Amino acid sequence: MSTALDSFASVRELRAALASRKLSAVELTQQLLQDIERNSVINAFVDVRAELSLQQAQDADKVIDDPAKHPLAGIPIAHKDIFVTRHWRTTAGSKMLANYVSPFDATVVNALNNAQTVSLGKLSCDEFAMGSGNEHCITGPVLNPWDHESVPGGSSGGSAAAVAAGLVMAATGTDTGGSVRQPAALCGVSGIKPTYGVVSRYGMIAYASSLDQAGVLARNADDLALLLDTISGFDPRDATSIQSCLGQANAPGRILKQYQAALDQVEDHSKPLKGLRVGVPREYLGDGLDQGVASAVEKAIEVLVSLGATRVDVSLPNTKLCIPAYYVIAPAEASSNLARYDAVRYGHRTSSFDDLEQMQARSRAEGFGDEVRKRIMVGTYVLSHGYYDAYYLQAQKLRRLIAQDFKRTLTQDCDIIVGPVSPKVAHKIGSTSNDPTAEWLGDIYTLSVNLAGLPAMSVPCGFAKNDRGIDMPVGLQLIGNYFSEAQLLAIATQYQKHTDWHQRRPGVSK
Amino acid sequence: MKWEVVIGLETHVQLATRSKIFSASSTQYGAEPNTQANEVDMALPGTLPVLNKAAVECAIRFGLAVKGHIAPRSIFARKNYFYPDLPKNYQISQYEIPVVSGGIIHCMVDGEPRQFELTRAHLEEDAGKSIHENFLDPVTGMACSGIDLNRAGTPLLEIVSEPNMRSAAEAVAYAKALHALVVWLGICDGNMQEGSFRIDANVSVRPFGQKEFGTRTETKNVNSFRFLERAILYEVERQIDILESGGKIIQETRLYDADRDETRSMRSKEDAHDYRYFPDPDLPPLVITSDWIERVKAEMPELPQDLRQRLVEQYGLSEADAEQICQSRATAAYFEEMVTNLPQGQAKLAANWLMGEVAATLNREEIAIEQSPVAAKALAGLLARIIDGTISNKIARDVFAQMWQSGERADAIIESKGLKQISDTGAIAAMIDEVLAQHQAIVEEYRAGKQKAFNSLVGQVMKLAKGKANPAQVNELLKQRLDG
């Protein structure tokens, strides 16, 4: 399949084409609306409103001549359906919010609107961002553009699929336990989750507040830098957003400036990563890692070494504990965060009931899907009187141990940590439905990062065969210290200058 | 058997901030339903709480005033329970680490100064209101429950006392002192009808001498001091009756019904929620630096107990007078302004007038001292005329009444009505001569040893002088004339 974005390798290239008036933002938007329609089988979009997108494109065309001032004007993007929007429906993939329209835009949405990007609509996700395959969703599964029988990953599956399919240049996502990095890896696109607090959570429907962080998915690290920089910044409406990152004000401009400085610093262009110590945790290459994935990741590490980096074997001994820690803390917070969906003020309300309790119980039973109900029940249990100490407090202790592992490793042993994003390539749609914990185990390499609040990204690093012999994308994870987004992006950009995995497109070339 | 009563109070004090504790909505009372509830108060998807610093400053003020410990780092927690007027279905409150712990409330019980210890004071948000009676669905016209979220998110300071009160009278004295203090500090408007100060009373009884507490009940949301007294008295009697007839007290939440003057069960412990408290991940720990405390301290009014002490030491007032003057900041300010406009050593006269004539008139007119038509300085002007002998205390009361009515200054009224006291010895002596000449019979009685006759003669002189003669001079001169 081909789309209007095929001829543009990056945001900067597309922006230059728009500035030179080779095509207008309106023309591009019109073509993409048709592309979305033609590719509707992917099922990535859950709400498309042509008139709104075209209006934004028209506005973008008014400033299209000034790319220096408006570097993202006219760039087609779309939002994960977990960010509230005033004009598009916001469902969080749930029947509970099937017809919900927010009276305000999320801070992230506002930032991209102000940058004059053109939104093509809302992208499917797992219900309330709970899931790793975009299978738990009222609008049905999203298909992986590389293989329509496979999942795109999740929970930002619609975002990854739409970027991979060339329907948008970039998409917003959220990452609570890997929900940006894992679908990016499984769909062969680049994705970044910044340090907790760098991007505002205001207007992002909460799943697990202490872990949720907005991120971006795009074709390459340079595009990510442009977009992440735009949505970053302290927000007075989010008490957990950060005012200052290691002495620098958390505001748009910081990441891009640091990123450019890191690129400009390079003296030996054949060895741009000279002096960089790359830590490879032995716990990330052990049991459960698919051979094909392992081999692609190993090759990527070799590329980094060939670019001047030094490989250091490191250990994150508490890695395995991230699964129990995460699957206590996240459901605990979720059980409370999702209590507001009670059929009183908005959202799904059951058709018949005798009293208030029945109205609420039935509405919630009908409005929430299985995975959400499962996590609410787990969360309610672990917070209950008599169990709190054994589960929630223990999990918080594990969380501190996991964060200490990273802190020690990133201060003593290495500058960044690399490894796989997901132990396997994308699985077949429906294949995990009989094993309720199989999907949870797939998050082993991503959860720790959220528990520690660190920035991390995923970049395409090759392919591995799935169980039907189809080549599926593999992602390399890069994990940095707090506020090292720019450093990670610069390293990824160097990697992408010397590899072309990120340029591979489904149905075009493999 | 003799029973000992054990009472502890939990008081919800609505803080007098302009906006809500976690949102920018107004806290003004009495607006149309749901007009003061924004997306945060309504718990729309994607909204987050941001702590209002003004609410924290109220808590710091309170902590300083009761000399409690102000936590350098306290935690907001979520108290999870489903209720339709609690939009998030959890209340943000403080659980393990409150902003203030400990502290003392000073009050008078039966004329004796007493102290009651506090356990803690913590910040939290209020819920909205459910309206179950006389409410119709605007669409279908059917009876239904209405929800008003204007109050949702209003800042509260929940102040918990130790269970150290042993009678309804002590509980009421504590509650009144606490009420006066939070109003004094400017952190609460004190309006009990509007729910700005609501009391939950934990009451139990035990045989005298027993160490362990009896099973307690909690009577919720009492909104007047009289109801508090009635509710406690009822509850004590009910509990003793049950125990003396061999029954057991059930730990439960009760409600005071003022119409029937009784408490009745709301829910028992078995129905109690498991609130599943956990730290709110949306709010970082509340950090209060010593600098912040110092800044708040600098803006604090003088505390009532400090002021009381100062009034005794600086002006020589009695403890009881000082206590009365410190009933409100406005009364104390009025007093001090009077005194600074009077010659030294006249504080007692000022206090007597303030608690006598002024208080009585304010009471009769049902207005607060801030609204008094006679300002402190004007009253001092009147008292100055008593001190310098221009008018008597009795005449001054008439002048005060006229000042209240007309707003004129004391001197103007004394002048225009010719109320100036006669202090001229010659004039008084002449009047005495006239009286003595006219009332020979009484003079004879006096000479015969009847002391009462003297008072009668003084009265006649004052009558002749139309009350304006200086009474001390009249006494002295008359004595000289009769005995000399």
Features:
heterodimer, A: alpha/beta, 16 helices, B: 484 residues, alpha+beta, Arc Repressor Mutant, subunit A, 3 domains, ten-stranded mixed β-sheet, three-stranded antiparallel β-sheet, elongated
End-to-end separation of chain B: 72 Å
Query: How are the strands of the largest sheet of chain A arranged?
Result: 1-3-2-4-6-5-12-13-11-9-10
Number of strands of chain B: 17
Overall mean pLDDT score of chain A?
A: 96
Low-pLDDT regions of chain B: none
Strand residue percentage of chain A: 5-15%
CATH architecture term of the domain at 11-274 in chain A: Alpha-Beta Complex
Number of domains of chain B: 3
Q: Unreliable runs of chain A, pLDDT <50, ≥5 residues?
A: none
How much helical structure, as a percent, in the residues of chain B?
25-40%
C-alpha termini separation of chain A: 14 Å
Protein described:
The complex is a heterodimer of chains A (510) and B (484). With 510 residues, chain A is an alpha/beta fold. Chain A has 16 helices and 13 strands. Helices cover 36% and strands 13% of the residues of chain A. In chain A, helix 7 (221-231) packs antiparallel against helix 16 (485-497) and helix 8 (254-264) packs across helix 16. Chain A is globular. Chain B has 484 residues and is α+β, with helices and mostly antiparallel strands. Chain B folds into 3 domains: 3-295, no CATH class; 302-417, no CATH class; 425-483, Arc Repressor Mutant, subunit A (Orthogonal Bundle), CATH 1.10.10.410. In chain B, strands 1, 2, 6, 7, 8, 11, 12, 13, 14 and 15 form a 10-stranded mixed beta sheet that branches. In chain B, strands 5-4-16 form a 3-stranded antiparallel beta sheet, with no helix packed on it. A two-stranded antiparallel ribbon of chain B has the order 3-17. In chain B, a hairpin with a 4-residue loop joins strand 14 (252-257) and strand 15 (262-268). Chain B is elongated, with a radius of gyration of 30 Å. Chain B starts with a strand and ends with a helix. The chains are: A alpha/beta (510), B alpha+beta (484). Chain A binds chain B through residues 83-84, 90, 92, 97, 100, 102-104, 106, 201-206, 208-210, 236-240, 332-333, 335-336, 339-340, 342, 344-346, 356, 360, 380, 383-385, 388, 392, and chain B through 39, 42-51, 78, 80, 82, 84, 87-90, 145, 147, 274, 276-278, 281-284.
